[in-house]
Amino acid sequence: MNDNQFQQWLKLQERQVAALEKIAIALDRLAPEKPAPNYKQSLKNFPTFDWSSIDAEVEKMDRYGAAIVIWNNQRYVRRSPENSYGAAIFFTRCVGKDETGKNKYERLITFEPIQELKVRPISRDAESMIQ
Questions:
Q1: Which of 16, 37, 86, 117 sits a CA distance of 20 to 30 A from 109?
Q2: Are 4 and 49 part of one and the same domain?
Q3: Are residue 63 and residue 26 in the same domain, yes or no?
Q4: 67 in helix, strand or coil?
Q5: What's the structural domain count of the chain?
Q6: Residues 82, 84, 88, 89, CA torsion sign
Q7: Distance from CA of residue 71 to its chain's centroid?
Q8: Does 117 map to a domain?
Q9: Residues 93/105, Cβ–Cβ less than 8 Å
């Protein structure tokens, strides 16, 4: 292969790489987004929560803790409304509008008080079968 042929081959390779990069970008746009899982955690865990445990990264902190986190290449903003539903902190992002024009949100994680659940003993029949 002479120098001229090599240069032509190199240009062809560059065009192929550019085309493959465009295809990859188009495929990324076509791939359905993974919906946010709306994990649940106790409110007392918020200050020390390990964001890497849900594959998230803290983008911004303030005096309360994480304010903005990145998950699946999406930004989720901390919210904590004053309303009748009680104390809670959650991280959401807007995913569009509903049929009435209101913003629709998805939640990455919700921190709320966890109530102690009372558990009844198992039946004697079940107990005898597991021992």
A1: 117
A2: no
A3: no
A4: strand
A5: 2
A6: negative
A7: 4
A8: no
A9: yes
In DSSP terms, 81 is beta-bridged to none
Structural domain harbouring 11: 1-31
Predicted local distance difference test score (pLDDT) of residue 108: 98
Residue 25: predicted pLDDT:
82
Sequence letter at residue 4 = N
| Stretch (H or E) spanning 104 | strand 103-112
CB of 107 within 8 A of CB of 91?
Answer: yes
| Residue 57 Cα distances to 66, 71, 94, 124, 126, angstroms | 9, 7, 18, 48, 44
pTM over 0.70: no
Question: 104 or 31: which carries more pLDDT confidence?
Answer: 104
Is residue 83 domain-shared with residue 63, that is, in the same domain?
Answer: yes
Question: How do the residues of the chain divide into helix, strand and coil, expressed in percent and rounded to 5?
Answer: 35, 35, 35
Kindly tell me the burial class for residue 69, based on how many C-beta atoms sit within 10 Å of its own C-beta (0-12, 13-18, 19 or more): buried
Are 24 and 46 in the same domain? Answer: no
CA separation for the pair 67, 52 (Å, rounded): 15
Note whether 8 and 66 are same-domain residues. Answer: no
pLDDT in tens, 25-40: 887 776 667 889 999 9
Residues 54 and 103 in one domain: yes
